[in-house]
Amino acid sequence: MVKRGLDTHKTVTQGEWLEARKHLLTQEKEFTRLRDRLSQQRRELPWVKVEKNYVFEGPRGKETLADLFEGRSQLVVYHFMFAPDWEEGCRSCSFWADGFNAIDLHLNQRDVTLVAISRGPIEKLEAFKRRMGWNFKWLSSGNNDFNYDYQVSFTPEALENEVEYNYGKQKTDSSDLPGVSVFYQDSKGNLFHTYSAYSRGIDILNPAYNYLDLVPKGRDEAELEWPMAWLRYHDQYEDRSGNTKREAR
Amino acid sequence: MTTHMTGTREEWLAARLELLEAEKELTRRSDELARRRQELPWVRVDKEYRFETDEGSASLADLFKGRSQLLVYHFMFGPDYTAGCPSCSSIADGFNGVVIHLANHDVTLSAVSRAPLAKLRGYKQRMGWTFPWASSFGTDFNFDFNVSFTEEQQRQGRIDYNYQRGGHAMDMTPVPEPVAELAAMSGTDAATYGRDRPGLSAFVLQDGIVYHTYSTYVRGVDGLWGMYQWLDRAPKGRNETGPWFRRHDEYGN
């Protein structure tokens, strides 16, 4: 159903639209400049040496954090929510993964390796990855502290109180939450943690939300029970083709 | 060995918290901009465009495929190109996987290019993409939405792109090296290459009438270019001096 707001939307001539659009363009350009400046500030953050030796389970066996760089100097980790006792990865994280699955190849050309890491056992990660048809590398941190140290997993005891997430205290029922962490490896093999973002800090990494921010209805989630209530795994939509006519809601 | 400043976890955290405030402020601004986009007035589209699609000849209303919102990615693939533009191809790598989610949230995302449908289909198959891609070959569509230009416009310096005249690198003489390089990768010369430009336009369908709501170009599509948002979070940033990207089947390793 089309919302009433859209039914009564103001329509104008091309000339009038252009005037309004150019006004908005000035604000958009200012936003782009601010975003560039923020990216610069992000790179100016001090780095923290990683002293702990993390070993992950990967598709080809054990790999250390240093191994994950695959010879490149920058590593981006997507903290994919998949707790050991879950049978499927988190639905929202799967949505994010649908967005980054095909671009890790491009990032590799800029000296960046992108991997996903979850606590779930590697067999479960591999099976779910096959089902979803993804290609990115996905590792299990089920046997180390990695997820806890980078504040995306919480022990049952911790969940009884407020947990530390997105640089603040909050109450959650979920043992795992999403995030992105960035690491650097210098020429001597020293590893540094440079950056982590959580919650809406990873919004911009989901292309779908960037597209929704341009359409008349926007994200259109305000009236739902929770923002992503509309979301399904890409193989569980009734309309899988993106082509057939949508049933009226 | 790194010369970058290193610190303790506490020092890092203090700097990170400061940055977090700036990031939150940017997110709020982004939300505010999205709201202002939604407030833009609409323009009724009266012209009858005919596109060629996998399902046959289609009107602009048909491209909505039963949904009420349509996003057109103006994919640079002119009739004389032998392959789609490499930058647009990397953008498409980013949206190909999420088109199905948008489709289930009342948004059809379709690419539209001037090349004949057979060329688009061949290239789409090569790239392994599944999003809808319509040909606007022989129509005014691309010209009306300021993403294609005539040789005459080019000759006379009358190219209005991204809401200004002649401001883009593709309008410069001599042609900058990156433009020539991307043109060669698309199997054409710089002038022919530059007659098509990238962009994104939004439309809404209401009571059978199509309205144009929004168009964006140049760095306005930057946020949609998935890989750059990841690079913006890496220590070296975008780390580029020219076009480094290739089509995903053209990288050496």
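qc> The longest helix of chain A spans residues 14-43.
qc> done
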